[in-house]
Every structure is written in structure tokens, then in C-alpha cells.
């Protein structure tokens, strides 16, 4: 693996300087970890071993949380292949000379790739330089996901605009709710922005249409995920919510240890309770 050179532009980058000290450290460590294609495993246990072997106070949950935060800022993109989690640096090939013929890690090919964070122009986190950059036409093929359907983009094409969810769509309102809950919990946290909200809306839409969960159930589970002390620190994106939906549902329905299930726990919450703290309101007819 060649050495990486960090550009001086990080000193004035708004995105980089919006990071917390811990986010910045993880981000820099990841630059030294990824392969020649800017990809790496997003498994917190693996990252802990390879990237932070001497940082005993850093937990795997800290790493998982920070990866989600960096993805929300557009500094990395997360994706899953065959049940394994990976990440890559957006626009890596525009700043890096590719010396190996094959990546050590699979390229993103499904909805968990968070493809909407990829930019073919100026990267939000322009990070490294190592000699001559590869031309855009040599970049890997990429996918855009529009309401559950993937459309292959030809190599070298500008990234197409994602399908737009309106403010009236349940999926978009759920994304806004999650965004505002995260902002309320983390001091100084800004909104993830419209592109990320649209990407999250895609995941909520799939949770309903493809996974078969009702909007009423989705709203209850989402509300629970943001109230629970553990899950509120881990459900930081639409994709993560969808991935952990069944675990969240099971946890929500499990009585507290040593305590009888309160009568109120069986109450059917109205979907409009999503407006709490978020100021949003879902349509009455789904």
C-alpha cells in the first residue's frame, strides 16, 4: 500500500473543520487503511484491530457511530455486499493514482452503498493526492437507486440527480424526523442536507414497499429507536434503520427485565406522533 499525502486544503475545508476531534482522527486513520481503490471494511471489529490497535478506550460502538456520522457528512460512503459492510472515499480516483489491477474489496453494487454521497465534481472531502490522478472514464461503474430500482450509470457520466421525494411523502418525513432527532442529541450537529435526506427517504420507502412494513409500524419503531439510550446512538441513517428494523422491533416489544409489561406498552401509537420534536406531520391516509 503506497503512502498517502493529505492535501493542505483540509486546513480551510468547511466539511473537515466541522468534524469533531474524534471524527477527524478516525477519518485520517481510515485514509491510511483503505486499499488502492479507496475501499475498506466497515466492520468496527476489523477497523478496531487494523486502525486503532493501541487505542484501548475506543470501543467498536464508538467506531460504528463515527462511521455513520462521517457518511452523513459525505466524507465516506457505506455499502453492503453479501452481508458484509464496507466503505469507500468518494471521488478517490480523481485524486489517487491506481497502481493495483484489482481492489481488495468488492465495489458497491446495492442500495446500501449510499451512492447519493458520491460526487464527480469537487468532493466534499477532498483528501489525498499521490501523483497523477486517473481519468474519470476509468472509474468504476456506479449505481443510482430510485425508489427501489437501480439504474446503471455509464463510466465517466456525471452522477444523475436522485429521485425526489416531496415533503408530503411518508418516507421523506421519516427522514426529516430522524435528522432532527440526531441534531437534537448531538451538540453542534447540523442537518445532513437534502441529498442525504433523499437517500434516507429511499431506505424508508424500501422498508415499507419492499420489506412489507406498514407506515404505522415504521413510525413506532423509528420513534422507539430515537428514545432508546442504546439505539439512539446507533441508528444514525435511514439505511441503518432499515438494516436493524427487526432487531429494533423485537427490542421494542420486549418487556424490561424483572418488570411486568406495563399496560400502556400495548397502546397503539398514532403515526402522527412523529411530529414530536420534528414539527412534521404524516398524511392521515397512507
Describe the protein in words.
This protein has 286 residues and is of the alpha+beta class. The protein folds into two domains: 5-153, Arc Repressor Mutant, subunit A, CATH 1.10.10.10; 170-275, no CATH class. The protein is built from nine helices and seven strands; from the N terminus they run E-H-H-E-H-H-E-E-E-E-E-H-H-H-H-H. It has helices at residues 14-17, 21-33, 44-51, 60-72, 170-185, 194-209, 215-227, 238-243, 245-253, and strands at 5-6, 39-41, 77-81, 84-88, 128-129, 142-146, 149-153. The strands form three sheets. A three-stranded antiparallel sheet has the order 2-4-3. It has a two-stranded antiparallel ribbon with strand order 1-5. Helix 2 (21-33) packs across helix 4 (60-72), helix 5 crosses helix 6 and helix 7 crosses helix 9.
Q: What is the rounded distance between the termini?
A: 52 Å
Beta content: 5-15%
**Order of helices and strands, N to C?**
EHHEHHEEEEEHHHHH
Number of domains: 2
Strand order of the largest sheet: 2-4-3
